[in-house]
Write a structure and sequence with these properties.
Elements lengths: L2 H16 L5 H15 L5 E8 L2 E9 L5 E3 L3 H9 L3 E3 L17 E9 L2 E10 L7 H17 L3
């Protein structure tokens, strides 16, 4: 399957799964599992939830991760502070990158909104350089839209 077909299938799976549940922890856990197992060449997929001026680790798939990230720090903190998706081809070239897993080489982080405020972020890491592109951004932003449409935040 090409990338477009993979995202089409994953988004249908997420729509079906998340439409039957509103609990944020359950939906974050299932979404992390679907993405981690459904996308190739990942080493981490999960959520950070905003608590004041920091992000706190939520449900994820992959190796243990940083527990708290200040807003504006690293790729996740930057996405949370700016409210904009961060697509990073080489994390070692990202000023202030936080190396929770030294195997990570590229990353994409999508902000999750509640009432026009950043509620948290979806973070996806890969051990490959330049793993993510515009098609991944579109697919993962759509996944976050499905998450927010069905989850009681």
């Amino acid at each position: 399957m090409n990338k477009s077909q993979v995202y089409s299938l994953l988004l249908k799976q997420l729509e079906g799964m998340l439409s039957m549940e509103t609990d944020p922890v359950s939906n974050m856990a299932n979404m992390a599992a679907v993405l981690f197992n459904g996308l190739e060449n990942l080493n981490w997929a999960g959520f950070y939830v905003r608590r004041g001026n920091e992000l706190v680790l939520g449900p994820f798939q992959g190796n243990p991760a940083c527990v708290r990230i200040a807003l504006g720090k690293g790729v996740c903190g930057t996405a949370a502070q700016t409210g904009k998706t961060q697509l990073v081809q080489d994390v070692h070239q990202f000023a202030g990158h936080i190396a929770c897993d030294s195997a990570s080489k590229s990353e994409i982080v999508i902000p999750v909104f509640k009432n026009s405020q950043v509620w948290g972020v979806l973070d996806i890491d890969s051990p490959a350089l330049a793993r993510f592109d515009a098609e991944d951004q579109i697919g993962l932003e759509r996944a976050v839209e499905i998450f927010t449409a069905h989850t009681f935040l």
